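Practice problem: predict the structure.
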Amino acid sequence: MRVVVTAEARLSRTADGAVWTTGSAGHRFWTRYLSAFDQVRVVARVLDVPEPEDGAVRVDGSQVEVWPVPYYVGPRQYLRSRSSIGRAVRGAADDVDAVILRVPSPIGGHLSSLRERLRLPYGLEVVGDPYDVFAPGVVGHPLRPLLRQWFARRLRHQCAYADAVSYVTERWLQSRYPARRDAVTGIYSSVDLPPAAYVAQPRRPVSAGDTSTLVSIGSLDQLYKGIDTLIEALAQLAAAGISVRLVHLGEGRFRPQLEQLTARLRMTDRVEFLGAVPSGDAVRRRLDAAHLFVMPSRTEGLPRAMIEAMARGLPAIGARVGGVPELLSDEDLVEPDDPTGLAMAITRMLADPARMTEASARNLARARHYSADTLAARRDAFYGQVRQVTERRTPTSIPM
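Answer:
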């Protein structure tokens, strides 16, 4: 049986037909579905390019193929391409295919509507919250309030309809988007870190020295990562005589705007935008060189970047949004959009080597819950149940 999986990944395709990604969802990521299925078809945005970006990895390969959807970034481009996206999605899945939608996802919404009209089953992997994605300050589209309500309502409907629903959080997403009573449910993160992602021991108590290095990771295609808040917090720290520098890993269309903010606050010599950095060792080296990981996001699901930092034994400060409170202690959380509160939290952490040591040990232990071995059994069980549901609800057994 083939499984068709929709995702909001942004992929690229070279002239030879090969499909690439600079993110973590390379071929290995999609082979996880082969524990229960014979083939995987990934439905995602694809942009034709002359050659792959530096550090890109193949997505398609043995038993994994990509079904391309017109490429878009942000609500405006999606709305302009909505009709062509719908046409592309219609042919992605046959009646006998299993379907798993990674949601929230406009692409997934097209396929769920089609499956419902045909009275065909589908499953969900709920990896984020559209109500927070379209919160004030996250997306600047004039239809933001309408999009916020519409996508949240769509996800509630999908969860209430789907035959199987898994969540990346233990409580948070379930409370907003409950599955129907008789649905198969699961709890597992999309993040499954290999053994190489983990350090052997927590960090020892050390002073940050003359200058502390903060590191942040995330796409700059939208402002939901709150990097503007972090830059403003750094300016407050500098004004107070606290020597810190920030290294950000991630690229996107809002980078020029953030660089302008950095220049306006006279922080250019303290903030370094590295752009896209290949996943794996290159990211780990940057995490290992930092003193503190900071994630001041306005919205999150269960952030992979946070877990990767924790796996390196890195102390962390995060915003009290999404699944972040399920990862960090309350003392390590701040409110989003509060540069002063963030500056104070960073100051307290950096000034207390014992606290940083405790946070290192705590974070490393928590990150081990997301090792590949720990999550694989739960994920495989869920996929097996999706296959069983699909086999039971074959087209011949569906009342018309």
